[in-house]
Design brief:
heterodimer; A: mainly alpha; B: alpha/beta; Rossmann fold; 5-stranded mixed beta sheet
Chain lengths: 218, 288
Amino acid sequence: MLNLIVKDILIQKKYLIFAIFYFLFLFFVFAKSSFLGFIYFFAVIATVYMIVTTAVDCDEKSALLLNSLPVKRQEIVLAKYCSAFVYAALALLVIALLTGSIFPSLRLPITFRPLTIGDIAGALAGTALFCSYYFPLYFKLGGSRIRYVNLLVFISLISATGLLVDLCQYHPYRVIFLLSAIRQVPLWQLASKITLVLLAIFLSSLLISLRAYENRDL
Amino acid sequence: MSQILEIENLSKHYPGFSLQDVNISLESGFIMGFIGPNGAGKTTTIKLIMNLIRRDAGSIRVFGLDNIKEEVQVRGRIGFVYEESYFYDELTISETKRIIKPFYKQWDDPVFQSYIERFELPTKKKIKELSRGMKMKLSLAFALSHHADLIIMDEPTSGLDPVFRSVLLDLLAGIIQDESKGVLFSTHITTDLDKIADYITFIHKGRIVLSAAKDTILEQYALVKGDNDLLDRDLRQVFVGLRESKFGFVGLARDAAEARRLFGGRAIIEKPTLEDIMLFTVRGAYCA
């Protein structure tokens, strides 16, 4: 399986380099905005999204080559999920290096907060959620058809954001009630529940992907 | 000699096309030509052998092993060359090798290097910068660099220049000197097979028309040429395919001995080529 992860990194190396420039752009543009709290999370998820979606485009064409090599389809699926986390880890590492070491040594006029455990947990949870949604569709439908689904999801997400803003604006008491209810739950309990739900979603996604790819004609 | 490939009653159904009851058997030490017109089912059969598509019925055993249950072991001993290049366009030849090499336990770097030099392939060039012929040569270099026991080729010569086609055929003839190896060579350029194939399997509309030793097939069939007035309803039944024109007829008889008995002295009887057999079988009776 390591071969397959190395393969993913090799075919995506130019996007990995591009991701570093993308981070610099994000950090400096949003350095003083209210998004600063989420900037590392967005940077990691955007990187994972960009690299994973472009990698599967390449794999779609090369699926016959890959599946003619002595490797099981299960391994190909597992490696795809692992690769996404490797990209997330690499992105986190670059962010840690930039904000913890490179930016301070350059004595820039802007200060960046250090990477926290919360950022790392959020980025990994986001990566797990992205994998859970994206890979079953990819392994079932293939790279060409998933583009349309992606577009639909993207439009839905934008609409959902609008609805969320409306909810906060017109029914603030409901949002406050919900947030207070969440705050009353101890942090460890909340974290455990979220982790369990995420794990259940992730494992279901993995099983669906394994089954879908196993039965797919190439 | 051992059975290197055994396909029994293999079926696969698609809307509009079905591969039905395919039976093929190849012993080590031989080259089998797999012929048929486009869309006959050659690539589907090869995809089924490689477990790229799911079979609906039948069994495939490679080196005596089930090709699905033991797929990793089976594929580790197969060298494959497909009609198109499925390499990653953005990678160089060296990077592609870095990806493919670790999958094979028996990968042989010096052998790969020797093919790269022999085929004059530029290792620093990206795959997308290579010509079709170069990509085919690269596929061949990969297929031959891990001491594969079965080489499967799907239309490898289409689009190649005659010089490299000849090199390829020589290479295959060399491989088969080692009697533990076998080659399944799918093509519609039957002249390639006239030179090197030991066995021929002919597939048409998803069914095997014939599968036997090449020499047996060429001796079994006969090409008959004569005047149209020789033909009557009964004699027409002798032919698999018949081409009639105002100058006379040319027909492929499925039984050469019977053709000699019926037409001896009155018509010209020749040994057909594989192309004749394929053409007449596919086209049947027609007027030129």
